[in-house]
Every structure is written in C-alpha cells, then in structure tokens.
Amino acid sequence: MFDSSVLNVVIGLIFIFLIYSLFATAVQEAISSILQRRGGTLYRGVVSMLTDTPAQGNLFSRIWAYITSWSVWQWARALIKKPEVITLYQRFYHHPIIKNYGENALYNKPAYLTSENFATILVETIKNLESANEIKPADFKMIQDTIVKYSNLPAELQENFPGWTEPVVAYIDCETFKILNFHLNEAAGDLDVFKARLEKWFDDSMERVSGWYKRNTQTWLFIIGFFLAMALNIDTIQITKYLSRNKEIAAKLADMGTAVASNSHYKDSVITAEILKEVKAQKDSVNTLLGLGWKYTSNHPSDEILTVLKGTFATSWTNFFGIFISAIAISLGAPFWFDLLNKFVNIRASGKTVKSSGSTTKTNKSDDNTDG
C-alpha cells in the first residue's frame, strides 16, 4: 500500500501541473487565434504539396525560411506589396471558394479544408490555368494537357512530350508535375479516379501537417510555461520539498485534485469560458496555499523583472532546474495530467474509504463486517 502522505504530494503536484497546463493552453489558444496558426499551418501544408521541396541550406537560411513562414510576416508582406499570382498554390488560394472560406480580410486563410474540396478546387484551378477553359467543364484530357503545358518540365522528361514548349509562366514546379503526372497515370483516363487520388494525397499530407501543428503547439506551451513558471516562481523542486514538510497543505491540494478529477471538461481540448473561470479560481487558490511568487523590494516593473531574473538564473542552479521542470510539465498538456491525476486519485481512493462521519479507514476492514 502506498504511503498516503506520498500520494498526497504526488497528486498535489499533478494537480498543480494540470491547472497551469490549462492556463497555458488558454494563453496558447489566444495567441494561435491572433496569429492565425491553424490557417497558417494549413497554408504551409498546401504550399508544400504544390511546390518543389526547398533545398536544405545553411543554418541561417533555414532560420530565415522559418521566420518568413509566420502568419504575421505574411500579413506584413501583404501590406507592403501584393504578391504576384504566379504559382499553382497562389492560384489555388485565390480561387473564390477558398477566399470565401476566410473569415475576413485579415483572417483570409481557411483553418480547415476537406479533401473533397481540395481535389475539386485543385482540378478547377488547373483547368483555369488556360483561360479558354474557364467556361468549359473539366475532362481528363483537358487537365492532362493543361498540366503539361504550364509545367516546368524536368529536362529528363521533356523528350517524352514532343509538343511541349517552355511556358511564359510555369505555374507548376518540377516535383509537383511529377506528383500530378503520377496520379494522372494511375487514374488511367478517369477524372473521378484522379480526384479520388488527389483526396488521398491530401489526407496523407494533412497527417504530416497535423504533426507540425502539434509540435509547434507543444513548443508554444513550453515557452508560455517557462515564462509562467518564472513569473510565479513555480519551482517543482521547492514545491515538492514544501509539500513533503507540510502534510496538511499536501492533503488539501490532493483533495482539490480529487474534486477536479471527476470533471471531464478539464480534459477537453477546447477550453470554455466556464472552465477558464474555474481554472483561474483554482490557480489563485494554489498560489495562496503555496505562497507562490517573488518578494519584490519595490513595485517598479524594472525591479520586479530583475527579481524574477535573479531568482531564476542567479540564486541557485536548483531554482532554474525546478522552473525548467515545471515548464516541461506544463508543455505536456492538460489531457496528459488529467489522465494521470485520475490514476493516482483511484489509487488513493482504493486505499481508504470515507465514512459518513468524515473519518477514514482501510477498505479491507469495514466497520459493517458481521458474521453470517
């Protein structure tokens, strides 16, 4: 049987990580909304599908490519200079249906796109590369001819298309042509099969894009968690020591965690206003109970910042390490801590049962045990 005091400390820590993970998630969602991260990630995914894979440059060029992929940078570039529509993905995103999926002029990229809509709009976009096709219904040969005509064909494939001449505007890159041509060949002259293959291609690509978004979200949670832990002095090492010495406070935190474990809304990926209000109240209770925070010599912002920086980086290596552990814990996300909290709460509940009088006893020694 686990020592109840140890269980209380563990449940208390898990409860703290859960509350601050939820708070960090709420901040992260607000940032994602402002930066249009979902729409921006989908946009990058479509761009990666409809353009050549960029060559791996040096470290600085990769950092610059990462910076210029941010939505904020795209907004700034759009304000300074309107980009020319000279690529397939630009034509795709200028299609009226895609433009209508945007919320407004600022949030103009859709955050979600079905595979069926992707395939239909891509076929329509390819067809309309040839202006004479705009009023005609698409057929397989029309799509095939247009792809060849407006592609930057690789040198090794040019001899396979004797009538091909280099287009004035090569909307379709070499690698993109190879992918589209592969799907055309596999479709064997059937436009519906070609669309179905484009849908499958989109679904497969979006699994990879979802991985990008999850990794990016976890990075944001770590950054937010680190600054949150710094600002409030959420030092896992010191908190563990404090709870180990103060068993009553550890028991109170464990009871708070037990109450929260029964509320499945704490596991939801979307935080409602009601849950956020509860989280803020729980956070304030934890801060008061543990006395989290820093002691400032004055209320001047510069003094507060200096105190936080000194306390985190200059006082002791254990302070930084404890805050770093808290940041990692927060980055794991609320669903992880909610599931773990329930497991330990069940272990705690199996070790004791609460009588109507409020006292506790071991479950294998019931007061109601009587002979036959």
TrEMBL record:
It comes from Mucilaginibacter ginsenosidivorans. It comes from the Bacteria. The chain crosses the membrane at residues 6-27, 220-239, 317-338. Keywords: Membrane, Transmembrane, Transmembrane helix. This is Uncharacterized protein.
